[in-house]
Amino acid sequence: MTAAEKQQLYVFLKKTDDWLHGYGTPDFCAGKTFADDEAFVPAAAADSGSDIFLSKNSESFALTETQAVQVAAVPAATLESIAAKILRCSNCPLCCGRNHAVPGEGVPQPTVMVIGEGPGEDEDKTGRPFVGRAGQLLDKMLAAIGLDRGCNCYIANIVKCRPPQNRTPLPEEAEACSGFLEAQIHLLRPKMILAMGRTAAQNLLHTSQGINALRGKFFAYQNIPLLATYHPSALLRNAELKRPAWEDLKVFRARLEELCPGYDASFAAQRRSGQ
Fold first, then answer.
1. What does the alpha-carbon distance between residue 197 and residue 251 come to, in Å, rounded to a whole number?
2. Is the entire prediction scored with pTM above 0.85?
3. If the chain, 275 residues long, is cut into consecutive pieces of 10 residues, what is the mean pLDDT of each piece?
4. From 196's CA, which of 80, 111, 133, 145 has a CA 20 to 30 Å away?
């Protein structure tokens, strides 16, 4: 393959990747250079004792200035730029009924990313995830294993706008938001993911299994350990689920201690300071 052909293929793949993700991925960057492949010489040349391989062109082929601009047209994403896109998103009908979209909340380099279903009434009013009764319970659940959105967690949802009457998001609504969530996970690079409830687990794992079959077990999401448990709202409706949810959290904590010893140091410091 010639350098020019490689360059054309590169630009095509770059544009396709940006379009699929909705943001510029750092795996593609401007300034790539290409060289022609080496080619076999004719058999006659080989018979004459010549080198078996000859370089067609010893010079590297660099992108032209215009091509480099095309490749770098989509800027690298940040949490802020993703949030800005979410706030003006109209990819599905949920945007029509929202007061506020809810991008997510937490630290930019979290040990754990917590992913729920979608905003409820309180979240829609404030633009913050998990701030109602279920959110208050979630904060207590996380604190029990040394986690907090203020020091070592990031919290987000499968969909970023509230579904009517807090119904389960439709598959097409989850799909419309999936690029935003993938971008957030890509940037945050959490050590582990805690999926809260059936909707989060099913969408992340691309399965139709129920939460009873999925909870308490480890799966891999893009090589990140993922564990699912009951959504805090389910615990508020049925107190009998609190015990198995606590068992799930203990399993999660044990793996987290293996992967990230001392992960809760910032949480303990925060508690000591009274923040």
1. 16
2. no
3. 71 58 50 60 43 40 56 72 96 96 97 98 97 97 97 98 96 96 97 98 98 97 97 98 98 98 92 76
4. 80
